[in-house]
Specification:
heterodimer, A: alpha/beta, about 35% helix, about 20% strand, B: alpha/beta, 8-stranded parallel beta barrel, 17 helices
């Protein structure tokens, strides 16, 4: 069982789960939060010291007044890393969490050993409009998140409680409504990322279309890209086994570098 | 009671058949369905209808702001208000309202409203709104900062109107080194400010505050809901330690008059139902983006989702007091009854709705003006004599 506690950093209380030994691996969740520790995290905790916070404004974490944009969140997480006295960490960021991972790493690249960016938001390219997550009904959102029908059905049959859904949605809008799912200034600083970077994408991602994977690859020359066919926005959920294998190898290699 | 002719300027020539499979006429209805030649005729017709309000005896005319929709063709009500300022001499001109948070520089609202106030010799009623949820999708503006920007834009505008310039304004969203309005408004200290709303506790608390006492206008709602929010305004004022005047309350409602009840219902039916069931229809996610309303209000509205999205017939709407429709006698009595029950000093009659034809709009407006208007305009004085 993951240890499930709260962490208070500079007056902001966040839900914080942790399990495993080995290199420190920080998971940064996307727009839907991380109400439950997902199977891929359990698997990874067999090889790594896996840290699973809920961002301020999501799930059971506080909603601080100072949280107005992704910059605020990035500085907060640098404080969290200080607070936990972590030396150098590996990060997996999904979607919004991938964007957050890059905002952290361009600020203090020396503190991050590797980045795994999964269906990541953060930049905007004219060729591909991200899915309009704010206009989708829950049904449409489920269909546009997964390719696997069983996962779509499961998601629709097991909705998150209404309060948490509205809270997560509110904070997602706060962070990512305008400019939509990106920071126009981010791409000019991505050259500061010198650590190993693994891009992971579902070929059928309807939220951050595959074109974004190639755009990130072009902006981060050392990045390697893995694309899963028949897979939507969350390959760590939809292709869990392959994802764990890929990421474990990548992180182990990066850790020894 | 003051009676104001309120026009939404819907795109009445929309091909309702060809667009029937689109979920909504807001945000993403392709603009190939818009014909500028037809709109030229509509704009001129609608302005004629508004201008007719003056000789017909109305106290004012009103326009509003909506973006990228067939629901209403006034992305800038200020353009229409300025046309009206030149073609009328007596009536008040109400902008209901300008959507403050959508402006990058709300100082432009202060300027443009001041221009119309000066041009019209002090006939402007200035309305402030946040814009509806759909407009946060079309403009891309973050709905979670909507309230905050609204309040700050309001403060900037009122200061620009009232505080001797130049002065600096330092806000969270807006910053100006030199606020120094030319022209300043004609009315002193500034034009009356009205706050149209579909009903919100937060809006009422803000509008009713003793520093503001702005006129609260309940727009297109069942009479029961109108009653609830007007009462809420009075209660809020009382809690603030003062008694709200009737002039602080208003109701905007579609009105249709014909010789008989039967004829009125027959003629209004299709245009009203198009207005209610097609032009106003939009998905829940479009209407209520995150942060646009408090999460408590949002939960309430989600619970009422079924009734919000339910199709409605004219007959149901009359029954609920969402529209006033019938013979002059019926309409006069209905308005008098509502007035006695709810006590509001401002009635905004939407004499055109949906695709109501020019001829029927004209007939209804004239019948209303001759047979109903004088009676309801005198409602306040009757009340005063009763006291």
């Amino acid at each position: 069982m993951f240890e499930d506690t709260f962490l208070t950093v500079k007056g902001c209380k966040i839900r914080f789960r942790r399990q495993g030994h080995g290199p420190v691996l920080l998971y940064l969740h996307g727009a839907n939060g991380v109400p439950k520790v997902q199977p891929f995290l359990h698997e990874l905790s067999k090889s790594f010291d896996v840290l699973v916070p809920e961002h301020p404004g999501f799930g059971e974490s506080d909603e601080p007044n100072w949280l107005e944009n992704m910059h605020d969140l990035a500085y907060f997480y640098l404080d969290v890393i200080d607070h936990l006295k972590l030396d150098r960490v590996h990060v997996i960021g999904s979607s919004l969490g991938g964007w957050l991972a890059m905002e952290l790493a361009i600020r203090q690249p020396q503190r991050f050993k590797s980045l795994t960016l999964v269906g990541s938001a953060g930049i905007r390219i004219p060729e591909a409009q991200p899915g309009d997550i704010f206009l989708w009904t829950p049904e449409k959102a489920a269909h546009n998140t997964f390719k696997d029908k069983a996962l779509i059905d499961w998601t629709l049959a097991n909705p998150l409680d209404l309060d948490t859904t509205l809270k997560n949605r509110h904070t997602t809008a706060l962070l990512a409504w305008d400019p939509r799912l990106h920071n126009p200034m981010l791409s000019k600083w991505l050259n500061r990322l010198k650590m190993p970077v693994q891009l992971v994408w579902g070929a059928d991602d309807q939220i951050m279309p595959l074109a974004y994977a190639h755009a990130f690859k072009a902006l981060i020359p050392q990045a390697q890209l893995s694309v899963y066919p028949n897979c939507g926005h969350l390959p760590h959920v939809e292709k869990s086994e392959a994802f764990v294998q890929l990421v474990s190898q990548f992180i182990n290699k990066a850790d020894q570098a | 009671m003051k009676v104001i002719l309120f026009h939404l300027m819907s795109y009445a020539d929309l091909d309702f058949e060809a667009t029937k499979d689109y979920e909504t006429v807001w945000v993403n209805l392709p603009n190939r369905f818009f014909d500028p030649v037809k709109c030229n005729a509509l704009y001129n017709r609608y302005l004629d209808e508004l201008e007719s309000a003056e000789p017909l005896g109305f106290d004012g005319v009103a326009v509003n702001e909506h973006h990228q929709t067939a629901y209403g063709l006034m992305p800038s009500p200020i353009v229409m208000a300025s046309a009206l300022a030149r073609r009328t001499k007596r009536v008040k001109i109400a902008i209901l309202g300008s959507a403050l948070p959508l402006r990058e520089h709300p100082l432009t609202v202060a300027e443009e409203h001041a221009m119309i106030d000066v041009l019209s010799g002090g006939r402007l009623i200035s309305g402030f709104v946040r814009g509806i949820g759909a407009e946060y999708h079309t403009f891309g503006l973050n709905p979670t900062i909507s309230h905050d920007r609204f309040h700050e834009a309001h403060d900037l505008i009122v200061q620009a109107w009232t505080k001797p310039g130049p002065f600096a304004f330092t806000g969270h969203h807006y910053n100006h080194e030199y606020v120094n309005l030319w022209p300043r408004p004609y009315q002193q200290p500034h034009p009356p400010i009205w706050v149209p709303s579909q009903g919100s506790k937060e809006t009422i608390d803000w509008a009713a505050h003793p520093d503001r006492r702005y006129t609260y206008l309940q727009t297109f709602s069942p009479a029961k809901v109108v009653g609830k929010y007007l009462k809420s305004y009075r209660d809020t004022a009382e809690a603030f330690g003062y008694e709200a005047q009737d002039s602080q309350l208003g109701w905007a409602v579609p009105v249709y008059v014909a010789d008989t009840d039967e004829k009125a219902r027959m003629e209004a039916k299709k245009p009203f139902e198009l207005f209610r069931n097609r032009l106003l229809k939009m998905p829940f996610e479009m209407l209520l983006p995150p942060g646009y309303s408090s999460r408590a209000s949002l939960k309430g509205m989600m619970a009422a989702k079924a009734s919000l999205t339910q199709e409605m017939t004219l007959e149901m709407a009359i029954e609920m007091g969402m529209v006033i429709c019938g013979s002059p006698e019926t309409v006069k009595d209905a308005i008098a009854d509502y007035w006695h029950e709810l006590r509001f000093d401002n009635l905004l009659t939407m004499m055109h709705f949906g695709n109501l034809s020019q001829e029927l709009t004209k007939n209804s407006t004239e019948l209303f003006a001759t047979k109903v208007l004088p009676h309801i305009q005198s409602l306040q004085s009757e009340a005063l004599t009763q006291v």
